[in-house]
Amino acid sequence: MLGSYDLLTAFVLYAFVSSITPGPNNTMLLASGVNFGAWRTLPHALGVSIGFMVMVIAVGLGLGEVFKLWPVLYTVLRYVGAAYLLYLAWKIATSGPMSEDDGSTRKPLSFLGAAAFQWVNPKAWVMAVGAIATYVPAQGYLLNVLLIGLIFMLVNLPSVGVWVMCGSALRNVLRNPRWLVLFNVLMAALLVISLYPLLFVESGFS
Predict the structure, then answer these.
(1) Are 64 and 140 in contact (CB under 8 A)?
(2) Which residues of 35-59 are buried (b: 16+ CB within 10 A; e: fewer)?
(3) DSSP for 72-116, written as a single string
(4) Of 159 and 21, which is predicted with more confidence?
(5) Which of 49, 44, 43, 40 is nearest to 20 (CA)?
(6) What's the rounded Cα separation, in Å, for the pair 133 and 111?
(7) Which residues have a Cβ under 8 Å from the Cβ of 203 and sit 6 or more positions away?
(8) Which InterPro entries match (predicted)?
(9) Where do the domains of the chain lie?
């Protein structure tokens, strides 16, 4: 499976680096950790990792080829993703202050919402296509696709969890409403900036 130990090691390193570096998922998880704490953000983090695993497997089973045949479908997906990212950025920027009831009057992104978001996340597409194109050997292809998806999830979950814990650790620092508003606006701005590769960089499906 995966051809060799060296290939497996290289893939795990790829999965770790691509998972822990900044992107839309980690920006939102950091903001959610600040606004809701680690425990309430857990479904969001699980949705990211499990949803991404499903996406990697789907790409490996041929979804990428569908987009190559009909690139207009991916173009539509890109602009739907852009609109959704702008909506999420607005939600973050306009988040109210932390409440003493542990934020129960507000809700973090759900498991299903986070899983669905992977399909409109530009960084997730780059990661998924890169993993399948680079690290899946032809021999035992189907089994290796499933293994790649599973390993990616196992590496991704603790990686994104670091961002959640960093956000949770900042909760006490950001109890001041003014600092929290500034933080949320900054996170929203970073999400908007992340639209650049989504809209202005070649997708590879055209």
Answers:
(1) no
(2) bbbbebbbbbbbbbbbbbbebbbbb
(3) HHHHHHHHHHHHHHHHHHHHHHT--PPPTTTTTTS-PPPHHHHHH
(4) 159
(5) 49
(6) 28
(7) 67, 71, 74, 75, 78, 125
(8) LeuE-type
(9) 39-97+104-200
Residue recorded with tokens 């960093």: 166
* Tokens describing residue 36: 């809701």
CA 176-190-131 angle, 5° bins? 130
The residue length of the chain stands at: 206
**Residue 193 CB coordination number (10 Å):** 12
Q: What's the pLDDT tens digit per position in 124-171? A: 888 888 888 888 887 888 898 999 999 999 999 999 999 999 999 988
User: CA 77, CA 198: separation in Å to the nearest integer?
Assistant: 10
The whole-number average pLDDT for the span 78-105 is: 69
- Beta-carbon contacts of 67 under 8 Å, excluding residues fewer than 6 positions away, are 73, 74, 203, 205
End-to-end CA distance of the chain: 32
CA atoms within 13 A on the CB side of 180: 22
Contact 11/135 with Cβ under 8 angstroms? yes
pTM equals: 0.80
**Nearest partner of 132 among 141, 120, 123, judged by Cα:** 141
Rounded Cα gap, residues 75 and 45, in angstroms: 27
